[in-house]
Amino acid sequence: MKLRRLATAGVLAALAAASLGAVTASAGGPRPPAPRDQSLRGLAARNGLYFGTAVDAGAYADAADPQYKSTVDGQFSTVTAENAMKWESLEPTRGTYDWAAADAFVAAAARNHQLVRGHVLAWYSQLPGWLTAGIQDGSIDGPQLRDLLHKHITDVVAHFRGRIWQWDVVNEAVSDPWETPSAIHLGGNAGSLKQKFADLLGPDYVADAFRWARAADPKALLFYNDYNIEAFGDGGPGDKTQFVYDMVKRLRAAGVPIDGVGSQGHLSTQYGNYDVLAVADALDRFTGLGVAVAFTEVDARSLTKDAKDPALDAAGQDVNARDQASAYNYHVLLQACLMNPHCLSFTVWGFTDRHSWIPGWFKNPPEGAGCLWDAGYQPKKALRTVQGDLAAAGPPMVQPRQPQKPRR
Ligand code: XIL
């Protein structure tokens, strides 16, 4: 399949860099990879999958925290800038670009033989202050915003041309079922910045954003990226996955150059979990449209404190149950991805609870503990689970089952 070939072309360096680990055949079958060969990038490479993380530029550059950088460099085969490629970072002053942090990030990825997911081009959030203010106070009108977005996409994609594997061209463009009106629509809550951004640009901006990105880089894979699209619901007006599916289908039918759907995968154990086959079904339906898929921002957070029950604290007795629930959420998304040959990459949104957006974002009620490693860089149950999933996803660990004959 063409998409598969695209995904593997030009990444032999990453494969070579990943330690594949020798597997010794024995009477009992292949031995599990030795601990030194259990890097996520190495285990994922056995399945042609790229395992990624978002990178916090400050932590990566912090000499006092060397384990952050060494883990990024050693464990992952694809990286996403957590904030450095967002519009607010690239053009803080109108008309003046600051490429320094993003360029340093892309250069580090090249040194480490990592593929880059470009994040993000058309998104209502983390716009520069001057732009948000103009949208809010009405001093920037629809045609002006459209021109600004066209220029932004053209300049940014051209700047990084040839160095980006997947671009998140349009991010979080549609509403959630708890917003007003509750039928899923382009935009967000009535009156919100998300809705104003969509209204000013008009419904065609999604297609245009992909066309502008394609014009600036003919080779990057162009993604629509969103959260809460891991599985289909009832197919009705409140089904966000269905809405995104229909949108992608229309875009494809109209010849818009969209190559993939990114499912962010921000999960919380307080809501339970999906199951593997439901998520696999959603991926299958998306890839049935001829696009690739990827998990782009996976984390699985938990409630860390509950005012009604002080025992439910991050350091409390619930740690084991919570860590297992988190691990199971990672497991479900990863298994589904492994089952689909067009699931190109599995990226976590931060890998250590020491540097995670979760506690700063989900405060009421407080949540945290969503990453693979704990705040002291110790492996959590989630890490051991995804390592096991990757190892068990196929050869050489998984071989035809051998019948046993009774001994005489
Ligand atoms: C988050 C970053 O992790 C934070 O550091 C920042 O303050 C806010 O944005 N969906 C996305 C990401 O597409 O860009 C967001 O990243 C998390 C939700």
TrEMBL record:
<keyword id="KW-0624">Polysaccharide degradation</keyword>
<dbReference type="InterPro" id="IPR001000">
    <property type="entry name" value="GH10_dom"/>
</dbReference>
<dbReference type="InterPro" id="IPR017853">
    <property type="entry name" value="GH"/>
</dbReference>
<feature type="domain" description="GH10">
    <location>
        <begin position="54"/>
        <end position="389"/>
    </location>
</feature>
<dbReference type="InterPro" id="IPR044846">
    <property type="entry name" value="GH10"/>
</dbReference>
<keyword id="KW-0119">Carbohydrate metabolism</keyword>
<feature type="region of interest" description="Disordered">
    <location>
        <begin position="388"/>
        <end position="408"/>
    </location>
</feature>
<comment type="similarity">
    <text>Belongs to the glycosyl hydrolase 10 (cellulase F) family.</text>
</comment>
<dbReference type="Pfam" id="PF00331">
    <property type="entry name" value="Glyco_hydro_10"/>
</dbReference>
<protein>
    <recommendedName>
        <fullName>Beta-xylanase</fullName>
        <ecNumber>3.2.1.8</ecNumber>
    </recommendedName>
</protein>
<keyword id="KW-0326">Glycosidase</keyword>
<keyword id="KW-0858">Xylan degradation</keyword>
<keyword id="KW-0732">Signal</keyword>
<keyword id="KW-0378">Hydrolase</keyword>
<feature type="signal peptide">
    <location>
        <begin position="1"/>
        <end position="27"/>
    </location>
</feature>
